[in-house]
Amino acid sequence: MNNCTALTAVDVASARTLSPRVSFFLLASITVSFLAGSLAPTPLYPVYQAEWGFSALTTTEIFGIYALALLGSLLFAGRLSDHVGRRPVLIVATLVQAVVMFIFATANGVGALMLARVVQGMATGAALGAVGAGMLDLDRARGPVANAVTPPLGTGAGGLLAGLLVHYLPAPTLLVYVVLAIVFLLQALGVSFMAETVSRRAGAVASLKPQFGLPAASHAPMLIAAPVLVAAWSLAGFYGSLIPALTRSVFGLDPSLASGIAAFVFAGSAAASVLALSSRAPRTVMAYGAFALIVGTAAAMGALGVQSAAGFFLASAVAGSGFGAGFQGAMRTVLPTAKAHERAGVLSVVFVVSYLAMAIPAIVAGFFVSHGGALLPTAQHFGFVVEALAAFALLGTLLEGKARATWNATAPRRLTPRLIDEAP
Question: Taking the complete model, does pTM exceed 0.85, yes or no?
Answer without folding.
Answer: no
